[in-house]
Amino acid sequence: MKARVHVMLKNGVLDPQGEAVRHALGALGFDKVEGVRQGKVIDLDLAEGATEADVTAMCEKLLANTVIESYSIEMA
Amino acid sequence: MKAAVVVFPGSNCDRDLAVAFEQAGFDVSMVWHKDSALPEGVDIVGVPGGFSYGDYLRCGAIAAQSPICKAVIEHADRGGYAIGVCNGFQILTETGVLPGALLRNAGLKYICRTVDLKVATSDSVFTQGYNAGDVIGVPIAHHDGNYFADAETVKALQDQDRVAFTYEDNPNGSVADIAGILSENRRVLGMMPHPERAADEGHGGTDGTAMFRALAGMVTAA
């Protein structure tokens, strides 16, 4: 059983790395990029019986800092 | 007077912090991250700078879950005194002992130099050795020192006089130029600049000494 967690900086939190990527894309001539937000993808291999609620608890406790980050979970 | 300095794998300012406490007259014990209790009768806990657990996931995130951090949180909850410097500040925000979070520097670069800090309040054991408005020179050395908190939290910090230090020339994008903050009971200080690196003639500056001197005799075990 697998889960994929996406962690992104919340809207309104400055993402300097995303900004740097946006500038670099602009410098390469990709002039249609209006914004870049950079985040993390965390893949979890889970034992049978693990639930989305377990993964939510992991996100709340460790995987995301909810002061600055939001997360989403895909169970597969 | 007893101080404990926490040592994580990757801490690199632990001994500097211990020396600063010792020079102010504290007996210092070093506490390993796997320990689950602080030594008996500790008056103040120092959470040092460095790169605990390689800064994996987020700065301070793994350290915040370590056994010793549970003891540090309990110490703070009991009304104990603590200071977190640099990575120690990041750890204290990750544990929730202090509000907010430290983001990547706005300029994306690691910055290592002495900066001018304004003492924003003298109303704490940490800052009582200064006058509010004093400007002191203290080194910073960080990649993720960009203090962030939502507008409501920042307003509360300001209204409650809990901003301890501000940058005179904001080096990292911190909201409201915040360099250090106090807990609600004013007994926990977190700051990105390193007062322990400005506490000896050999450091090239001694503006941090007043903080450690002021702590001596003022902090009591909880």
TrEMBL record, chain A:
Pfam families for this protein: PurS
Organism domain of life: Bacteria
Its job: Part of the phosphoribosylformylglycinamidine synthase complex involved in the purines biosynthetic pathway. Catalyzes the ATP-dependent conversion of formylglycinamide ribonucleotide (FGAR) and glutamine to yield formylglycinamidine ribonucleotide (FGAM) and glutamate. The FGAM synthase complex is composed of three subunits. PurQ produces an ammonia molecule by converting glutamine to glutamate. PurL transfers the ammonia molecule to FGAR to form FGAM in an ATP-dependent manner.
Keyword flag ATP-binding: yes
PANTHER family documented for this protein: PHOSPHORIBOSYLFORMYLGLYCINAMIDINE SYNTHASE SUBUNIT PURS (PTHR34696)
Protein name (Swiss-Prot/TrEMBL): Phosphoribosylformylglycinamidine synthase subunit PurS
Main location: cytoplasm
Top class in the EC scheme: ligase
Record field: catalytic activity: N(2)-formyl-N(1)-(5-phospho-beta-D-ribosyl)glycinamide + L-glutamine + ATP + H2O = 2-formamido-N(1)-(5-O-phospho-beta-D-ribosyl)acetamidine + L-glutamate + ADP + phosphate + H(+)
Enzyme Commission designation: 6.3.5.3
Lineage: Bacteria, Pseudomonadati, Pseudomonadota, Alphaproteobacteria, Rhodobacterales
Gene3D superfamilies tied to this protein: Phosphoribosylformylglycinamidine synthase subunit PurS (3.30.1280.10)
Keywords, sorted A to Z: ATP-binding, Cytoplasm, Ligase, Nucleotide-binding, Purine biosynthesis
Similarity field: Belongs to the PurS family.
Signal peptide bounds: none
SUPFAM superfamilies: PurS-like (SSF82697)
Pathway(s) it belongs to: Purine metabolism; IMP biosynthesis via de novo pathway; 5-amino-1-(5-phospho-D-ribosyl)imidazole from N(2)-formyl-N(1)-(5-phospho-D-ribosyl)glycinamide: step 1/2
Subunit annotation: Part of the FGAM synthase complex composed of 1 PurL, 1 PurQ and 2 PurS subunits.
InterPro entries found in the cross-reference section: PurS, PurS-like_sf
Organism: Leisingera daeponensis
GO function term, MF aspect, one: phosphoribosylformylglycinamidine synthase activity
Localisation: Cytoplasm
KW Cytoplasm (keyword) present: yes
